[in-house]
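Figure 2 data, in text form.
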Amino acid sequence: MRLFQIDAFTDAPFGGNPAAVCLLDGAQVDDPWMQNVAAEMNLSETAFVERRDDDWDLRWFTPTVEVALCGHATLATAHAMLEDGILAPGGTARFHTRSGLLRATHGGDLIELDFPATVAAPAAPPDGLIEAIGMHPMHVARSSFDYLLELPTEEDVRSLTPDFAMLRRIPVRGIIVTSRGTTRDFDFVSRFFAPASGVNEDPVTGSAHCALAPYWAPRLGKGQFRAYQASPRGGVLRVTLAGDRVLLAGRAVTVFRGELRV
């Protein structure tokens, strides 16, 4: 069974967000087996992809739980399919997932993902959130997956050192922190913390930008953004709000490919 490790949302190895991609090739495997593989890979997400007629079934697991939506591992999956000749250059892969039908389209040196927008509505912070972050946000909102906190400056986002033990007790997938970009290079920056999902800080989180795009669109007066996720590895995304969809475009690099013995 073919297995890849791919750095997503970067054009250089050892940057962006690493994801494992497992091509199931019709193997009969169960959920505990997939969870064990994800724990063995010990990356923020491992993707499992399997043929469904002309489309594909796609699932994502952290080392501890299955998640409903993952951007960087979807980008990594499309990249692996391109390298393996499953997806033709310039083609589109259609993935059936727990978040509905998703598309990944190859064009030039980018892969663009078509994801549902997850609008974050204003919300009161739950007990312990402000203390865990260690900083008072300008705004707090809640999407179907995460809390979203806007901080005053990019430096606030970059310098944040949250209390992960406290964050682990917040009953959501993760916490997005964001601010306007300080320079002309990026419209906004963000970081993503998900200790309750087994990942203290995710290096680059495509699905978080499904909430960030509709959040920043009215504030910045535009629908396309150049975004930076300011984790230690860092990652760059082109983000476009298109109605109730968000288009996430980025590059990916294969770090290794191997054979998983079943």
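Caption note: The first helix runs from residue 31 to 41.
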